[in-house]
Amino acid sequence: MQTTSPIVEKNKKEKTASKRKRQIFDAAIHLFLEKGVANTSMRELAVAVNMTTGGLYHYVKSKEEIVRMVTRNAIYAHESVKALRKSLGDISPNEALRACTKFWLTLEKTAQEQTIFLDRERVHMGADMQQVYSESVRSLIHFFESLLDDGVKAGEFEVDNVFLTAFNIYMSRIQFATKWWLLQDLFTAEEYATQQTNAVMKQILVDRNKIS
């Protein structure tokens, strides 16, 4: 009689747990946005994912843990932009800024809700995570600054205020997420990312013929 190996069984359990946590995570963000963190109970969250409260606590211990998960995901998104730049290798500042800006501005539905949540409910992070998150945000803005500086040095960009331009690139993601109710009839997430990226490049490129 053939039996499942312990390794296969362990991998199966880990995949199931990961899937469950993802469901809980997504449902929690939706409820937090709808009702606020303080007004959302773990019982309501359990009902939303069709679990018992005891079953829910098997995967997450508290609302605070979920908020920390959201914060870590946001920091991962910041680091993913930097990782993309490294993966692109030796390309022009124009190409690098364009690729990284569009990548940053393309939000899936879940990422959109996480962005709105962090914008509205930052107070629930806790002082330690607020500091870590703030440092991560500043690091990403400085990352875009460095891309802009590279373009200025290469003679590809003309920028009056490098920091403000980098800050505006960062904030364009927040703007789209929080104003989706207004913009959804005008753009898909992909269209917004493309057109906003082109708008940024148009403002700073010395040779505007390079705008695609």
What does this structure look like?
The protein has 212 residues and is mainly α. Helix content is 75%, strand content 0%. The mean pLDDT is 88.
Largest sheet: none
Q: How far do the termini sit from each other?
A: 62 Å
Count of helix runs: 10
CATH evolutionary superfamily of the largest domain: Tetracycline Repressor, domain 2
Dominant shape: elongated
Task: State the assembly state of the protein chains.
Answer: single chain
Which helices and strands occur, and which strands form pairs?
Layout: H1 6-35, H2 42-48, H3 53-59, H4 63-88, H5 93-105, H6 109-120, H7 127-153, H8 162-178, H9 180-183, H10 189-204
Helix pairs in contact: 1-6, 4-5, 4-7, 5-7, 5-10, 6-8, 7-8, 8-10
Task: Give a brief outline of the structure.
The chain has 212 residues and is an all-alpha fold.
Entry keywords:
mainly alpha; Arc Repressor Mutant, subunit A; Tetracycline Repressor, domain 2; 2 domains; 75% helix
